[in-house]
Amino acid sequence: MVIQGKSFKRGVGIIKCIVIISLFEKRRYVSPCSPPLSLISLLPVSKFKRQDVVSLHPDAQVGGGTMIDALLKKIRDGKFEFVDLKFTDIRGAWRHITIPADKFTDKIFKDGIGIDGSSIGFLSVKAGDMIVIPDPSFHFIDPFWEMPTISVLGNIYEVNPTEPHARDPRFTAAKAIKRLKKLLPQAEAFMGPEFEFYLFDSVRYEQTHNHGFYYLGAEEAEWNSGLDDEVPQGHYIRYKEGYHAAPPHDRTYEIRSYMCKLFQETGLNVKYHHHEVGGASQQEIETSFGPMFEMADKSQLAKYLIKNSARRFGKSASFMPKPLFMEPGSGLHVHQYLAKDGFSLFYDKSKPLNLSDMGRYYLGGLLKHSPALLAFTNPSTNSYKRLVPGFEAPVRISYSIGNRTAAVRIPGYIKDPSEMRLEFRPPDGTANIYFAFAAMLMAGLDGIENTVDPGEPFTGDVSSKSDSLAMQNPFLPSSLSRALEALETDVGFLRVDDVFAPQLIDTWLKLKQNEVEQIRLRPHPWEFRLYYDA
What we know:
The chain is of the alpha+beta class. The chain is built from 14 helices and 20 strands. It is 28% helix and 23% strand. 46% of the residues are buried.
C-alpha cells in the first residue's frame, strides 16, 4: 500500500512527500548470500574449455550436491516467481535481466543469456553478441521487489568460442586474486570499504544550448533556515558540522538503520552508521572486512541497497564525490591487508609502527603507483573537486599515522594485530569497485615483489607548497586528465599476468577521455560571473 501525502515547497522545487508502507513490516528478508569460494584455481582465458563455462568458481559445476543444485532447490522451495540476473557494466553500474523462475534451469548455467555487449561498453572485437552466465556463489533475496524475487550475479562471456570477456570487471578482479596466489600462495587479500553518500530530497539538473543548472535540496541543510515557504523547524546542521550529529539535527538516522537492517539480512556485516561531516545530509555506513572478491560483490550490493532504500523514503542517495560547493565530498576509503590463516601479514611488533616489511612494501607500491591508480579509483572529472585541501581529503602522495589528509593512513586506533591494515583514502563512489580493488592489489603486490620503500611517514602541512616537500611528497593528480596520463605511462604493474588486459586499458582510456572532453566543451555557470562582462 502507498500513502501519498501533500506536496510542499523546498527552495525552487516542489516535492511530494511519499510514505511507503507496502510490505515493509510484513515481509521478511532472510537467507543471506553465500560467500564466494576461493579463486585459487581460476582458469586463465587461454586454457578455458567449453565444459568449464559455468562460473568463475570452478567448483560450481553442474552435478549432484553442487552450488547450482542448491540454488535451484532454493528457488523452488522458496516459491520465488522471478530470478533477477545482475551483472556489472564497464563503468561499474549494475544491469539486470529478469527471468521467470520456472525458466531458470541448469541450462542457463551452460548457455547463458544473450545480451548486446556493445550497448553497455563491452565492445567485443568479434561481435556485439555476448552472454551472461549466472554465478551461483552470490545471490540474495531482493528486498525491493513486490513479487518474490531472488537476485543472482552473473559474469560476461564472449561467444564462439565461449570464454570470459577481457573487460568483465569480475573476471579482472578474479585474475588479480590469481596473481596474488602466484606470488604469495598462502595469502588472502582483505578489503573493507567505507560508504559515504548524501541523501537529497530533490535533485534537478539540465544543460542545453542556452542554459545550464543543478539544484539540490536537503532538509537538514542550513540553507533552509531562512525559507518562508514552510513551517520553520530550526535544528538545521551548519556547514561542515554534521559529523556524528544527533537528533533532532540528524533527521536521517532511521533511514540509515533501515539500510543497515537490509545489509545484515543480505549478508553484509555492519560495523556502524552515523551522520558524516556534510551538513546537507551526508551519511556513512561502514562494513567489516572481508575477502577482496566477496567484498567487491558486496560493495555493489551495498550501493544497490542504499539507493533503493533512500527511494523508499522519498529521498535520493548519491555517491557523487563532490555534489556541493564548500561541503565535504564523499569518499570510498578502502582498508586493506593481506592475511594468512586469518592473521594480518602486515603486523610485526618488532618493526616501527608495528608494520611488517611486507606491509611496508605493499604501502610503497600503493604510493609509487597512486597517480595511475587514481584513473581507476577516482575515474570521474568530479572526483578531483573532492581531492582539495581543507576537507579531510588526501592531496599528497604520502602516508601517515592517523592523518586523514594523507593518501594512505595507518589507523591509529588499531587494537587487534590480526587486522593490522592500511587505508587508501583517495577512492570514491564513481569507481568500478572490481577494477579499483584489483588495481590497488596489483600496486601493492608490485611493491612487495620489488621491495618498494615508502620512506618516512608524512608529518608536515599538507597544504604547504614548499619545493622540498613537493620533492618528497608530490601532489596527487589534480584532474582526471592527469590521472589518465599517469596510467598511460605507468601501466606495467597492471599488465602483469594479463590481469588488466590491453583491450580493457584501451577502452577505459577512451571512455574516460571522452568524459573529460564532454566537460571541456561545456560552459560552466561560474564562468559567466568571471568573464561575461569581459
